[in-house]
Structures are given as structure tokens and as C-alpha cells.
Amino acid sequence: MNLFRLAGDMTHLASVLVLLLKIHTIKSCAGVSLKTQELYALVFATRYLDIFTDFISVYNTVMKLIFLGSSFSIVWYIRRHRIVRRSYDKDQDTFRHYFLVLPCLLLALLIHERFTFKEVMWTFSLYLEAVAILPQLVLLQRTKNIDNLTGQYVFLLGAYRSLYILNWIYRYFTEPHYVHWITWIAGLVQTLLYADFFYYYFESWKNNVKLQLPA
Predict the structure, then answer these.
(1) Are 45 and 68 in contact (CB under 8 A)?
(2) pLDDT digits over 148-161, tens only?
(3) What is the CA radius of gyration of the chain?
(4) Which residues, including other chains, have CB under 8 Å from residue 8's CB and lie 6 or more apart?
(5) Fewer Cβ within 10 Å of end Cβ, the chain: N or C?
(6) What's the per-residue H, E or C state across 17-31?
(7) Cβ atoms of residues 143 and 88 within 8 Å
(8) At 197, which helix (H) or strand (E)?
(9) CA pair distance 189, 134, nearest whole angstrom
(10) Residue 153 burial by CB count (10 A; 0-12/13-18/19+): exposed, middle or buried?
């Protein structure tokens, strides 16, 4: 494991902890898209089908369990927790996220490295993760009250994917035959979706003003 991969994993973990901190401590999910969280739960459920069959390392297994458990916990909090669910803005979080699932599945069936169930599901998870943030970004554009924790959560998610791209570049030049173009393209698309958010996030930080995205 190289430094970029480790930094990416820790940034991803930090994003989850920030969101759980907000939901569990403040008992609020205001500004958080349930649609995005449901997509991420599906991403991890389909990506980690090998968790009990293919052992890589203790670190790898622990991280998989953390992301699986945290994603489904967040969905449960927003849907079922008697206090947290009251702060969910259902009227604003209206992105039809299920329209993203079928195209990603069809694309995975058509474009993959090996035609096996696990491989197709893993490829599907890559495509879906690339666009899973869209409902969250749309919700942030609609709301005028983006709190610091929600902004930090989205920023850390984008930073995690950016660090993973650096990890792939590093491995390309240091490992022979390291070519995973499906992963690279999906990761690049995902990072580009964050570009607009990054700009306004840094502008708000530089000018010490509240984060707002243009409608």
C-alpha cells in the first residue's frame, strides 16, 4: 500500500465519521441526501460480495465492514430514527436516484473485464459510485443553509476520490501491467462532478463566508 492509497482511505473514513458525528450527536440530517446514502449502501453491498470468501488482509476486511456498516446505519438513521428523520427534507431531496441504477447495471453488463457475477457487480459499483453524489449536490444547490459538517462531508468525499486517482497514477508507474481503465474512467468522472463544489467550497473558505452553491 502506498501513501496515496492510505490517505485516500483515511479521507474516506473521515467523511463517514463526520456525517455520523452530525447525525448521531446533533440528531439532525438536515442537508443530507437520503438518495445519495441509499446509492452508497448499494455501491458497498455490490462491491464487497467477496468479504467472506476472499481474504486479502485484516485491514482490507475491517475497512469493508466499516463502510458497509456505516452506509446502512446512515440510511437507517434518516429513515427510522424517531428524532433524526424529522429533520430530513424530503421535499427538497427529490432527485430520482433509481434512474441511475439501471443504466449503470446495463453498462456493467456490456463493459467489464470478466463476465462473472462478482466482476459485473464490482464494475456496477464503480459506475454507480461515480454518479452517487449527484442527489447530494442537487440538494445542496437547492438549500440555502449548508452547515459546516455537511460541507466538510462532501469535500472529504471528493478529496478521497482525488487521492485515489493519484494512487492509480503512482501504481501505473511503479507496478508492471497495472492497467484498470474502467476504474480510472469512473474515478475521473466522479472527481469531475465535484469540481464545481470544490470551487465554491474554497471560495467560501477563502472569503470566510457561508458555503452556497448556485442554483
Answers:
(1) yes
(2) 888 899 999 999 99
(3) 17
(4) 160, 161, 163, 164, 166, 167
(5) C
(6) HHHHHHHHHHCCCCC
(7) no
(8) helix 195-207
(9) 12
(10) buried
Q: What is the largest CA-CA distance in the chain?
A: 53
Distance CA 160, CA 12 (A): 5
pTM of the model: 0.92
Q: How many residues are listed for the chain in this entry? A: 215
In 3-state terms the chain splits into helix, strand, coil percentages (rounded to 5) of 70, 0, 30
Q: What is the grid cell recorded at 177?
A: 501491467
pLDDT tens, position by position, 41-64: 999 999 999 898 888 899 999 999
**Dihedral angle over CA of 76, 72, 182, 120, nearest 10:** -110
Rounded to the nearest angstrom, the gap between the alpha carbon of residue 120 and the centroid of all alpha carbons in its chain is 19
Give the count of beta carbons closer than 10 Å to the beta carbon of residue 65.
13
CA distance 164 to 187: 8
CA–CA dist 204, 211 (Å, integer)? 5
Distance CA 123, CA 109 (A): 9
The cell for 197 is: 463544489
Of residues 162, 158, 164, the one with CA closest to residue 200: 158
